[in-house]
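Case study 2.
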Amino acid sequence: MPLSIVLVQPEIPGNTGAVGRTCVALGAELVLIHPLGFEISDARVKRSGLDYWPHVHLTEYASWDAFVAERQPRPEQLFLFEEHGSASFYDADYPEDAMLVFGQETKGIPEAIWRAWPGRQFHLPMRSDVIRSLNLANTVAAAAYQAMRGRF
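Prediction:
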């Protein structure tokens, strides 16, 4: 399976639409972990994804536990992204079937998930100390392109 972008309980439909568009550009799968903060049929999702939304390779799971039970990811396959991740996303070795995991826009990745995968926490470096975090869609795009580097 190619690169997967996993959004855990996303809240903002425009971000999910933009991430879907990035997934189409990269041939990546978009995985949504419920509950979502919106209806997937929301026009704002499709507006952000423009007319690309029908081309998104979308998979949905009722919960993180359902995702893990079905997909059985290897630890080295998972990359959990948070602003306080211990390793830079530049230092990671991404396998072709990497799963890049991002949490809610307002809360991040749930702590139980974060703690269950030690050593798999990454961040995007930022030079300014006045920025707490980047927009989810921007972070996903940067991380996905880094993970795909050298594959074009």
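Residues 13-26 form the longest helix (14 residues).
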